[in-house]
């Protein structure tokens, strides 16, 4: 990758840091449940910001690395949307008041940024010194894709409870109810923790699991730590507002998991092909690169990722509409005239479809 101006990299992180700080201060100053309009405007702002940054990457680093950023951002954004399914379950399981869900999500985003920053730094260092790690990353993503495709959702239903959470509840004094957004409160003159602590721990553990999945995926699209980190930041920014914007729509995206499975499998194959292309393992082709192993161009990766997500979203919405039509046809009897209405009242009319 061409060396980016230091001022560009520093300026990028300063601007993103200020935006995240402003977002955090707004949440802390005025905790509330955002309206659809407010959430939509914030999501549009963050998506627009990512597209502006992509344009800058095209201008400063060229189309190859601009394309890598877009592919990485779209992939991480898709995986982050998948996070929302689990977040919704966690919020419901622990009955977090809607008013304070913004703060919980913001804390979750900060935890995710810290964890992903650590994983990115480690990943970049390992890739720099051990090219064979691509074999492991590729195999891991193929396994993750299989698990994603075979997942029935039962694991997510148990997202609110695990051994660590049970241990915390048994060891730490804890109140039965929330006290605003506080982690600690006073009950009968005694300081105790509120359920908010358990929520934060659960969100943090969820972020850790998703970081383990997502970092190898984006390193399959670019080896630039700068692109990897900025793509992750832009993917997580606006996730809080997206949670409130999508709301019930999340349950309609029934094929999103299948799309993510396809994307992860594709990137897994891409990583293994790249590993063969730069092979240094002596027991594979005598330690030489495998000539027939192609490098998948960035624009192909971008087309596959965007195309898969588009097909999944359209198919999901069509499927949901079909199910709703069937349900309305079965559950909503028609009323043609007063006699039919009288028959309905008497409980003798058969529903008409």
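-> sequence recovered:
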């Amino acid at each position: 990758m061409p060396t980016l101006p230091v001022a560009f990299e520093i300026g990028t992180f300063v601007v993103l840091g200020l935006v995240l700080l402003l977002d955090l201060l707004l949440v802390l100053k005025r905790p509330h449940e955002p309206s659809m309009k407010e959430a939509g405007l914030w999501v549009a702002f963050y998506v627009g910001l990512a597209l502006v940054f992509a344009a800058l990457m095209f201008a400063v680093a060229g189309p190859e690395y601009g394309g890598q950023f877009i592919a990485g951002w779209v992939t991480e954004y898709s995986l982050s949307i998948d996070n929302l399914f689990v977040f919704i379950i966690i919020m419901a399981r622990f009955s977090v008041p809607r008013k304070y869900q913004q703060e919980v999500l913001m804390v979750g985003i900060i935890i995710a940024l810290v964890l992903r920053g650590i994983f990115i730094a480690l990943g970049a260092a390992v890739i720099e010194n051990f090219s064979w790690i691509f074999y492991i990353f590729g195999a891991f993503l193929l396994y993750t894709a299989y698990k994603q495709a075979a997942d029935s959702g039962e694991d997510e239903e148990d997202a609110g409870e695990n051994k660590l959470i049970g241990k915390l509840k048994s060891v730490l004094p804890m109140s039965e109810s929330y006290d605003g957004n506080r982690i600690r409160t006073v009950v009968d003159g005694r300081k105790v923790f509120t359920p908010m602590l358990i929520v934060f721990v659960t969100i943090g553990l969820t972020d850790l699991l998703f970081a383990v999945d997502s970092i190898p995926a984006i390193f399959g699209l670019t080896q630039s730590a700068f692109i990897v980190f900025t793509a992750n930041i832009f993917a997580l920014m606006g996730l809080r507002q997206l949670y409130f914007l999508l709301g019930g729509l999340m349950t309609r995206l029934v094929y999103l998991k299948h799309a993510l499975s396809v994307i992860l499998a594709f990137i897994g194959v891409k990583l293994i092909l790249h590993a063969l292309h730069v092979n240094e393992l002596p027991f594979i082709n005598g330690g030489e690169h495998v000539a027939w192993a192609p490098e998948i161009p960035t624009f192909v990766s971008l087309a596959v990722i965007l195309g898969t997500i588009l097909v999944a979203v359209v198919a999901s919405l069509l499927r949901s509409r079909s199910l709703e039509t069937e349900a309305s046809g079965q559950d909503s009897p028609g009323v043609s005239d007063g006699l039919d209405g009288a028959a309905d009242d008497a409980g003798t009319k058969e529903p008409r479809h």
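DSSP finds 13 helices and two strands in the chain.
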